[in-house]
Automatic annotation (TrEMBL):
Transmembrane segments: 40-60, 243-265, 274-296, 302-323, 344-367, 373-398, 431-450, 664-684, 696-718, 739-757, 769-795
Entry superkingdom: Bacteria
Organism lineage string: Bacteria, Pseudomonadati, Pseudomonadota, Betaproteobacteria, Rhodocyclales
Name by which UniProt lists this protein: DUF1329 domain-containing protein
This protein's UniProt keywords: Cell membrane, Membrane, Transmembrane, Transmembrane helix
Keyword Cell membrane assigned: yes
Length: 1126
């Protein structure tokens, strides 16, 4: 080889003269690129260096919520009660004695150490830790004097025979055997629930790190005598992530295989190296761009860079092969590059955008991990348009074959031509009939097997791992040793909010017991636990365990006995206040058919007689509830993904070729291969799951490349030689594109087939399925596409009936534009744009610094804002307390029930209802005073962050220390976020009296002291903003000394607030698990829930918020003047 700048005398002419380029926008683009190739090359090098550095910041992670369909109705229930009854993200650690039972000192002490280590693992919800050595595990028995109960293992356990016997007896008396004690008493378990976010940083919990922590516990305590089995979502994710790291090995194998095949095919080290460089560059760009979009790689999307490399090689081969043919035809390197760019940019870019469409449609699946896969893959193929269609031609333009190399390669350009001449017969109807008949037969066979395709998991254990993986062995061991199984489906029974307590209503308990009985009789159910059954057993115990009395009692007092005992189990059976209860269904496995059957039985119960005005049974929580939701989303999405995929790719082909017949020739082979892929999945017992759903989209998106390249080449040949037959045009296209297509298909097939060696079964499955689709899609394009064209496109004498459109580039540009516009919309990830600078400027003009109207209203009843009240009123002293700064203001008028209609538009609905219900009340209205004021540093931050704050997935992001992130809210949700993160000063310390007026004019009064401190007043700021509050009940005397301590992550970017309650009568501080949503607020007599504090202080995703607009109304603003107009 020799390096040449232009290679021929006409090189400078090509650079300088627009007339040497093709007509249309493709020619204009070529002119701009090649006349500026040197600065562009340096620009590409600089971008690669910058993004290569950025790629070093990329993280590999997986969160529990990323893998579940959060918008599904089951998951709405799951998230609502996650903090109450515990999430599905549990970890189970079983200690098994290989040489005896659990009743010996060494075993119990080892279990205690494991329990303590689990307790202190960062991210474990410590109140959830359960084992026979924790105080929340107790037994209850009937004795002569009534009931007796205690912990299973005494706190002073010393290992003596007396204590060993005590533990054995206590355990046998309890109902924990089969749950956390093995049925044969040879193993015992530690159970814990994980939080969604790291309690120290507020970031998503790193499940891989958590899994490694539990693996360390296993290695520390597993011996020849003891086997430690660990299962749970975090552990499975850690094992999957560790296995996913093996993708680097497959990348190296694929790189070596690709290099060897490329060199064999091209016969040139230079072409091989350039193709590999331009295949690696888009991978570097992709990995470098991901951190800018706030994305990380997870066990699923970690395969995408590998796939991008394979696709990039495919397109690079088309470009280098075309360049080789042009140079061997006598053109210099620059001219060859220019000609290749003009010929291949349109079909190559359209093919890549078809790939992007294939990835985009996966976004129909409402699961964050799948949608991030969509974004990652779409971003990868989008940057490939730049690297493969611009960078590669620029690199090749600086090269030229030496005479020796050209002579060596001559003759290789005819590789495969003899085969293509023979296959040309498929473009004639005689041979085409046989090809179509074989295709129809294949479709019938595929349909026969594909009808058995199932949705969801079809094996035991974690299907992402191989059956002989340690994790799946642990699943098998725990399932064998314990009676209840490891798969849990929880049904949440929600009582009427106006009910005194559904737990003590016999009709409600009857339905719970009926549902429990029906579930026990359902195939696939191992065990069922509910409050109804617990109360029945309690009644039996009160009757000296006589089986005849195992039933629900008739009156509330007796029901209350069982409920009282149930409270000792914490929130296992019901929430505090008994507004919600659980029916826990333990399934024998989590196969899709089992889950579907159980869910259908529950839905049938609900439809027949389940839900009424007393109680509603809501699906679903527990890990099986998550699987059920995921299966339903995948099942519903599968049809839409396929429909959107084929519709969008068909539209792309119609726009490009302006022919429905050509579109059918390209799409029908893809549809056949998709059907055959479904049949292969059914034969291999691979279900349609989150992991496999993208395979068809990827296969079709990549497979359409072959058809586009072939038909584009055919139409180009027909345009230049109208006298050609369809067969001749097809053979010409095969000579130009066929050899490269076969080579790339084989290369990609071999590359992805290496995934079958992965330790992860889902990677192996994806590799085999993609290999099948890549190879068979190529065969369909070469064998079936021409046969269809022989009937749909050819006319008499095999002449093409297509009207070759000279404006194909224009039509293709429309397709390019249409698809390109979808990419940024997709990459937005539902992010709502920040406020533009022009609107931020209004905060210093017609709006106040926090977004209110600065001027007066029309009638002057609301004056203009003039800066607010920034100094104390005359006579104010700290020790004296409040002083009314407007004591001289005169009453304007009063609103009561009599004149309410006159002022109805100025009175809120709640106040209208109050005045109507109590005619003796009135609302005094005084002149409006606009006293609102904030420190300058606060308003400066509002203006600074207003242009960056935005909603992303319903969560406010990029708002820094602003206390009004959306001073000009565009939606109800933005307005609510302003309330949630409002300015509260550094701290407050107030005493207030709270009087609750109950129906019948009875009242209850309480005096409360509230002290809060915002994190702006703390020495060390955390990762997110927080409030710490202490509420102290001072009066009445019987409750004096009760405290509630609250830790509030402002805005709920973490999933829950934390609280602790000190009960003065019990002298006990306990953590409250469900201080959110409808948990009762302190000292309000049940008339207000915790989320109603300060107007609204809960998780914003609880409601759909709508912005009603601005409105003038009267409300209470000061202690002395009961109302003022605002």
């Amino acid at each position: 080889m020799r390096n040449t700048e232009s290679g021929a005398a006409d090189g400078n002419g090509i650079l300088d003269q627009r007339s040497n380029y093709a007509e249309g926008w493709v020619g204009k683009a070529a002119y701009l690129i090649f006349s500026n190739r040197k600065p562009l090359l340096w620009l590409f090098i600089a971008i690669t260096i910058v993004l290569g550095w950025s790629a070093t910041r990329l993280q590999v992670s997986a969160g529990f919520s990323k893998m579940i369909p959060l918008k599904h109705e089951y998951m709405l229930t799951f998230k609502e009660y996650e903090n109450t009854f515990g999430g599905a993200n549990k970890v189970l650690v079983s200690l098994k004695n290989n040489k005896g039972d659990i009743y010996n000192k060494e075993f119990i002490e080892t279990l205690r150490k494991i329990t303590e280590e689990v307790f202190f693992v960062n991210g474990v919800e410590r109140s959830s830790v359960t084992s026979i050595v924790t105080p929340n595990v107790r037994y209850t028995e009937v004795v002569e004097d009534g009931f007796k109960g205690d912990v299973l293992v005494p706190s002073n356990f010393n290992g003596s025979q007396e204590h060993i016997d005590l533990v054995k007896n206590n355990t046998r008396k309890s109902d924990w055997v089969g749950r956390i004690v093995a049925s044969d008493h040879t193993a015992a378990m530690v159970v814990a629930t994980l939080q969604e976010r790291d309690p120290e940083t507020g970031q998503r919990l790193d499940l891989r790190e958590i899994g490694h922590k539990f693996e360390e516990i296993r290695k520390k305590y597993e011996t020849d005598d003891y086997r430690v089995e660990v299962i749970g979502f975090a552990k499975s994710i850690a094992d999957i992530a560790d296995g996913a790291a093996g993708v680097l090995v497959f990348f190296a194998i694929a790189f070596v295989i690709t290099t060897i095949l490329l060199y064999w095919y091209s016969g040139s080290a230079m072409l091989t190296s350039y193709a590999l460089i331009c295949a690696i560059v888009p991978v570097i760009w992709l990995l470098g761009l991901l951190p800018f979009f706030g994305l990380a790689l997870d066990p699923m999307s970690i395969l995408v860079p590998f796939l991008i490399f394979s696709i990039a090689v495919s397109h690079a081969v088309q470009m280098t092969n075309g360049w080789k043919l042009e140079t061997l035809a006598g053109h210099d390197g620059l001219t060859a590059s220019r000609l290749c760019f003009e010929k291949l940019f349109i079909p190559g870019a359209i093919a890549l955008l078809a790939n992007a469409l294939g990835f985009m449609v996966i976004a129909f699946v409402q699961i964050e991990m799948v949608q991030e896969l969509t974004i990652t893959a779409t971003l990868g193929v989008t940057v490939m348009i730049i690297t493969n269609k611009m960078l590669l031609p620029i690199l090749l333009s600086y090269r030229q074959f030496s005479p020796e190399s050209a002579q060596k390669l001559r003759g290789r350009e005819n590789m495969g031509h003899a085969l293509w001449e023979k296959l040309g017969a498929l473009a004639e109807r005689k041979a085409a009939t046989g090809a179509i008949a074989i295709a129809v037969l294949a479709a019938l066979v595929g349909f026969w097997y594909a009808k058995d395709l199932k949705v969801g998991d079809l094996g035991a254990g974690v299907p992402e791992l191989r059956p002989d993986a340690r994790y799946n062995k642990d699943v098998a061991g725990i399932t064998k040793d314990y009676a209840i199984g490891v798969d849990l489906l929880q049904i949440i029974a929600v009582g009427n909010k106006d009910s005194e307590g559904p737990c003590i209503e016999r009709p409600v308990m009857d339905k719970m017991e009926e549902l429990e009985l029906q579930m026990k009789q359902t195939d696939g159910v191992a065990a069922v636990v509910s409050l109804g059954g617990f109360i029945s057993r309690t009644t039996q115990n009160y009757a000296e365990t006589f089986i005849k009395w195992r039933s629900l009692p008739e009156d509330k007092a007796q029901l209350g006995q069982g409920v009282g005992l149930a409270t000792r189990l914490g929130n296992e059976l019901m929430s505090s206040g008994c507004k919600a209860m659980t029916v826990s269904v333990f399934t024998s496995d989590h196969q899709a058919t089992t889950i579907e059957h159980i869910i259908n039985q529950i839905k049938a119960f609900k439809a027949a007689n389940g839900d009424d005005d007393r109680v509603e049974f809501k699906l679903a929580s527990g890990n099986v509830g998550v699987m059920a939701a995921t299966n339903e989303v995948v099942h519903a999405s599968d049809k839409w993904v396929n429909l959107a995929l084929f519709a969008s790719v068909s539209l792309l082909c119609v726009i490009m070729f302006r022919s429905f017949r050509v579109t059918l020739c390209i799409i029908l082979p893809l549809a056949l291969v998709t059907l055959l892929c479904n049949a292969v999945m059914a034969l291999m017992d691979i279900g349609v799951k989150v992991n496999t759903l993208p395979v068809v989209a990827l296969g079709v998106g990549v497979g359409v490349d072959y058809g586009i390249y072939l038909f584009e080449s055919m139409t180009h040949a027909l345009k230049e030689h109208p006298e050609m037959t369809l067969r001749e045009a097809f053979v010409d296209a095969l000579k130009q594109r066929g050899t490269a297509s076969v080579f790339t298909a084989v290369t990609m097939t071999i590359s992805v087939a290496t995934w079958s060696l992965s330790a992860l079964k889902f990677q192996a499955d994806m590799g085999l399925l993609l290999a099948f689709m890549f190879l068979v899609n190529m065969l369909g394009a070469i064998l079936l596409l021409p046969a269809l064209a022989a009937f749909l496109v050819a006319g008499r004498n095999n002449r093409s009936t297509l009207k070759v459109d000279g404006n194909a580039a224009k039509h293709a540009s429309v397709a390019l534009l249409a698809v390109t516009l979808l990419v940024p919309a997709l990459l937005s990830k539902d992010a709502e744009a920040a406020l533009p600078a022009s609107e931020v400027e209004r905060l210093a003009k017609d709006l106040t610094p926090v977004g209110a109207e600065r001027g007066a209203n029309k009638d002057g009843s609301i004056p203009a804002w003039s800066g607010g009240l920034t100094s104390p009123p005359a006579g104010w002293k700290p020790e004296a307390g409040y002083v009314d700064p407007f004591a001289a203001d005169k009453l304007l008028f009063a609103i009561d029930a009599k004149n309410l209609a006159q002022y109805a538009d100025k009175v809120t609905p709640g106040m209208q209802a109050l005045l109507k219900a109590h005619p003796e009340l009135r609302m005094n209205v005084y002149p409006t005073r606009r006293t609102a004021a904030f420190p300058k540093e606060v308003t400066d931050l509002v203006a600074k962050q207003a242009s960056t704050a935005m909603l992303d997935g319903g969560i406010v992001k990029h708002f820094g220390d602003s206390t009004v992130p959306f001073p000009i809210p565009k939606s109800g949700l933005e307005a609510i976020w302003n309330t949630l993160v409002r300015y509260g000063g550094g701290a407050l310390d107030i005493n207030y009296d709270r009087t609750v007026v109950l129906p019948g004019s009875s009242t209850s009064a309480a005096r409360v002291r509230e002290r809060c401190i915002w994190d702006t007043n703390l020495d060390k700021r955390g990762a997110e903003r927080e409030i710490f509050c202490v509420l102290n009940l001072i009066e009445p005397a019987m409750f004096s000394g009760m405290y509630r301590v609250i830790h509030e992550p402002i805005g709920f970017t973490r999933p829950e607030r934390e609280s602790w309650f000190f009960n003065v009568s019990q002298k006990r501080l306990r953590k409250e698990p469900d201080l959110s949503h409808d948990a009762e607020a302190i000292a309000v007599g049940g008339l207000r829930v915790i989320d109603q504090g300060h107007a609204f202080s809960g998780a914003p995703d609880r409601y759909d918020w709508k912005l009603a607009g601005k409105k003038e109304f009267s409300c209470r603003t000061t202690p002395t003047n009961w109302a003022t107009r605002v």
